[in-house]
Amino acid sequence: MNYQISEEELNRLERLQGQLDLIAGLCAMAGEDSSLISVKGLLAFLDERSNDLKRVLEATTTRQECNLAQKTMKYCDWVFALRIAGGDTLSMPGGAAQSITDKLSNEATVDEDMSSVLKEWRSVLARAKLTSNNPEQRRRKAATTK
């Protein structure tokens, strides 16, 4: 299986690695002298780092579940999206635009970088809707496909 993490999640993991290295070094330096490190402070630190890891793992698991549930864009969805963006609204299977919108919305929920793609897709749909409502353009389009 492949898992994706966002840049922010990667940064969190790298910070976590550095922080854990710091704690390991401090523990090694302290040795038997426990006055250098407060147990309460160490537990609070480790608890927060554990929460960082949980957030990254939850996000990764959510992405995998969405992928398995077919809620993510597949190659055929991208082909349909490109056709719609190119003005071909007549030869699309019923519900293709809504399915793409739903999948992009889901992806934007899971991956904040996809929100700009969703916004652009909605603009494409608005332009396509304006075009498909124009009877003259529909006649021209039908004539060119014959």
Write the layout of secondary structure elements.
Elements lengths: L6 H24 L8 H30 L6 H11 L10 H15 L4 H18 L2 H11 L1
Folded structure, characterized:
The chain has 6 helices and no strands. It is mainly α. Helix content is 75%, strand content 0%. The mean pLDDT is 78. The two termini are 45 Å apart. The protein is rod-shaped.
Mean pLDDT: 78
Quaternary status of these chains? Answer: single chain
Summarize the amount of helix as a percent range.
over 70%
Cα-atom radius of gyration: 25 Å
Count of discrete domains: 2
General form? rod-shaped
Q: pLDDT under 50 segments (min length 5)?
A: none
Tally of strands: 0
Looking at this protein, list some descriptive labels.
6 helices; mainly alpha; 146 residues; single chain
Could you provide a short overview of the structure?
The chain is mainly alpha-helical. The protein contains six helices and no strands.
